[in-house]
Amino acid sequence: MSDAGSVTESDRARIDLAAVRADTPGCLQGVFLDSAGSSLPPRPVVDAVVDHLRLEAEIGGYRAAEENAEALERTYQDLAAMLNGAADEIALLDSSTRAWTQAFYALDFRPGDRILTSRVEYASNYLAYLQVAQRTGAVIEVVPDTETGELSVTALEAMLDERVRLVAVTHVPMNGGLVNPAEEIGRVTSAAGVLFLLDACQSAGQVVLDVDRLGVDMLAGNGRKWLRGPRGTGFLFVRRSLCERLHPPMIDLHSARWVEPGRYELRADARRFEMWESSVACRLGLGRAVRYALDLGMGTIEAAVTARAEELRHKLAGVDGVTVRDLGRRRCGIVSFTVDGYPAEEVAEHLAQDGVTLTVGRASSTLLDMSHRKLPSIVRASPHYFNDEADLQRLVESVAGLRRTRR
Ligand SMILES: Cc1ncc(COP(=O)(O)O)c(C=O)c1O
Questions:
Q1: Other Cβ atoms within 10 Å of 214 Cβ, number
Q2: For the chain, what is the largest distance between any 2 Cα atoms, rounded to a whole number of angstroms?
Q3: Angstrom distances, CA of residue 368 to CA of 31, 139, 142, 160, 363
Q4: What's residue 406's pLDDT?
Q5: Measuring from atom 7 of ligand 1, which residue has the nearest CA?
Q6: Residue 137: which region, alpha, beta or left (left: phi > 0; alpha: psi -120 to 50)?
């Protein structure tokens, strides 16, 4: 069970399952256990997107954006409220990777600069480290894990010196329920005055995130996963004191102002990391998704998701031939497992035939961790608060059925 310090007893109040399921038409189509992939948006989110598209069709995209300008601003405000930051520290991008890379590539690395990261790093982040290391002579170092699989904060502390330019860590990996100790990492980086970039793509929307408690300087997330927003949405938090010092890797007439022929000025706020064109409909949908989560309460969501996942792990562990693969002392809503004698792809295919949607995590997405554990792939189930007991049971029975049919 999670040792999440920020979930209080009152958060453990139950979510009104009937209400959230009624808001989620996809719940009726089958068993959906892929919120770590791309979740089911609730009805108000779908309405926000579709209504705006209709408005664009009636009065044109520019006027439609003007009419919904206030709602668009609320997207920034609500994201800031969710993160305990300020609206001017938020940029809206079209994915978590876009948000993360806008921040990462804004840092200037010199030969010998050290980038410290975690073993469970997401492939796209690591590819960026490799590219920057090759271009600049910076070096990538992976902080060792503890026995239970999370990043060792003691090891990190011992590695910090004046050559460390950045600590960049994935909070929750794509391939398992581990929650890295971001708060402790932030404490250590803040004390050392080292920049801390958190990939919160898999934690945003399922784990309480508070940028002050986490001690992060930059944080990236997306909308389509646990926040249940539309695809093509992401966001970046950049601490105000840092923002002014960061020059985005790409700029346009939204992020900067062309003051005179030979001079431009960057925007002062985090929107310097954005570009002018965007899907306003999707941004409004993201805003609605964040509001939906805030109305339920992030602590309540975390408690519900953690409990569902823990229950699923318990049930799966009881099936002959199944090994639950989640690492970490603190675990969240991602449940990873393997089935003896069956490649993960085959398990997922069998489950799909039984009406259960989930995904496979392949080694190439989290290469360091998967090679370390000698896992070619894992089956990944990610129950959200809208999943009920019967959903979990269907998954478990289907996996057990697989074992019975081919022995
Ligand atoms: C940990 C992690 N970081 C980043 C990403 C990338 O997110 P996006 O597709 O929004 O760029 C993912 C996607 O699965 C992820 O799991």
A1: 25
A2: 75
A3: 31, 16, 9, 21, 8
A4: 63
A5: 96
A6: left
User: Three-state SS string across 12-66, please?
Assistant: HCCCCHHHHHHCCHHHHCCEECEHHHHCCCCHHHHHHHHHHHHHHHHHCHHHHHH
Among candidate residues 91, 163, 170, 158, the one with its CA nearest the CA of residue 128 = 170
Bridge partners (DSSP) listed for residue 357? 32
Residue 316 near residue 324 (C-beta atoms within 8 A): yes
Residue with tokens 């950045």: 166
Tell me the pLDDT band of 1, cut-offs 50, 70 and 90: very low
Q: Which helix (H) or strand (E) holds 293?
A: helix 280-296
Ligand 1 is surrounded, with C-beta below 6 A, by 95-97, 122, 124, 170, 173-174, 199, 201-202, 222, 234
DSSP string, 85-114: S-GGGEEEESSHHHHHHHHHTTS---TT-E
Predicted local confidence at residue 248, as pLDDT: 98
Q: Which two tokens stand for residue 143?
A: 């902080």
What is the whole-number distance in angstroms between the Cα of residue 82 and the centre of ligand 1? Answer: 19
DSSP symbols for 361-379: EEGGGSHHHHHHTT-SEEE
- 160 phi-psi bin (left φ>0, alpha ψ -120 to 50, beta other): beta
The single-letter code of the amino acid at 53 is L
What token pair was written down for 64? 């439609």
Residue nearest to atom 3 of ligand 1 (CA): 201
- 3-class state of residue 280 by DSSP: helix
Which of 34, 101, 120, 202 has most ligand 1 atoms within 8 Å of its beta carbon, as the pocket-test mutant? 202
Residue 230: pLDDT band with limits 50, 70, 90: very high
Position 184, amino acid: E
DSSP code at position 11:
G
Instruction: Return the DSSP state at 145.
Output: B
